[in-house]
Automatic annotation (TrEMBL):
UniProt organism field: Spinacia oleracea
GO molecular function, one term: RNA-DNA hybrid ribonuclease activity
Record-given protein name: RNase H type-1 domain-containing protein
InterPro entries the UniProt entry points to: RNase_H-like_dom_plant, RNase_H-like_EbsB-rel, RNaseH-like_sf, RNaseH_domain, RNaseH_sf
UniProt xrefs under Pfam families: RVT_3
C-alpha cells in the first residue's frame, strides 16, 4: 500500500483499488511462500544445498517468477541425475496475471508434464513453495483454482513407476529460480538438453554433489 501511495505522489501512477489489493495479496503470499515453511535454524538454511536423488532417479526442480505489470508468469525447470548432471532445463513464459501460489502450481504442472513427455519413470519433483508441495502430496487443500491445477498434476502420477514430492528452501532451488526469472524477463521459451545455459553454470558447480 505504501508503494502505491508513493507511485501516485511521485510518479503520478494511479492504480485501481482492485489492482492495489491484488498486489498486496501477492506480496503477502510471496512472504508466506519464502518464510512460512518447515522450521529449521537460520544457519542450516544459509548452508542449505541441493541434494542429489538416488541412483536411477531424476530430480525435477521447478520454480515460478511473477510479473504482474506485464501479466506474465515465468516457469523454470531443471532436471538432474545423481551426479548433478543436467539432463533437461527450460524457461517458459505464460501470459497470465497470476499470483505466486497459482504460478507455483502451474510450474509444478508443467514440470510433471515435461517428465511424462520425456519418458522419465522414476522422479522426485522438488520446489520451494511448501503449500504446493503439501497439496501435491495430498496432505493440504488449496483454493479452488490452485487445487484444480494441483489435481491435474496428481492425475499424471500413474504415468511413473515412482514419484515423490520434496520441499526445499530457495537456496536449494536457485537454478530453477534463475530459469524462471529469465523467462519472465525475456518473454521467451527455451529448452536445453544434456546441459544448461552458461549463466547457471556457477550454481551447478556449487550444487555438485560431494562423493
Amino acid at each position: 500500500m505504501w508503494k502505491t501511495r508513493n507511485d501516485l505522489l511521485f510518479q503520478n501512477i494511479c492504480l485501481s483499488p482492485d489492482v492495489c489489493c491484488t498486489k498486496a495479496t501477492d506480496m503477502l503470499q510471496e512472504y508466506h511462500k519464502v518464510w512460512i515453511s518447515p522450521s529449521t535454524s537460520p544457519s542450516a538454511r544459509t548452508n542449505a544445498k541441493w541434494e542429489p536423488p538416488n541412483q536411477g532417479v531424476l530430480k525435477v526442480n521447478f520454480d515460478a517468477a511473477i510479473n504482474l505489470d506485464y501479466g506474465r508468469v515465468g516457469i523454470g525447470i531443471v532436471t538432474r541425475d545423481m551426479q548433478g548432471k543436467v539432463v533437461f532445463a527450460s524457461s517458459k513464459t505464460l501470459l497470465q496475471r497470476w499470483g505466486p501460489e497459482m504460478g507455483e502450481a502451474a510450474a509444478a504442472l508443467v514440470a510433471i508434464k515435461v517428465a511424462k513427455e520425456q519418458g522419465w519413470k522414476d522422479i522426485v519433483l522438488e520446489g520451494d513453495a511448501c503449500t504446493i508441495i503439501r497439496a501435491l502430496k495430498g496432505s493440504q487443500q488449496r483454493g479452488s483454482h490452485v487445487q484444480l491445477m494441483v489435481e491435474d498434476a496428481r492425475s499424471i502420477m500413474p504415468s511413473f513407476d515412482s514419484i515423490s514430492f520434496s520441499f526445499c528452501f530457495r537456496e536449494c532451488d536457485e537454478v530453477a529460480h534463475r530459469l524462471a526469472k529469465q523467462a519472465v524477463s525475456n518473454f521467451s521459451d527455451e529448452v536445453w538438453l544434456d546441459g544448461g545455459p552458461l549463466w547457471i553454470s556457477d550454481v551447478l558447480v556449487f550444487d555438485t554433489p560431494d562423493f
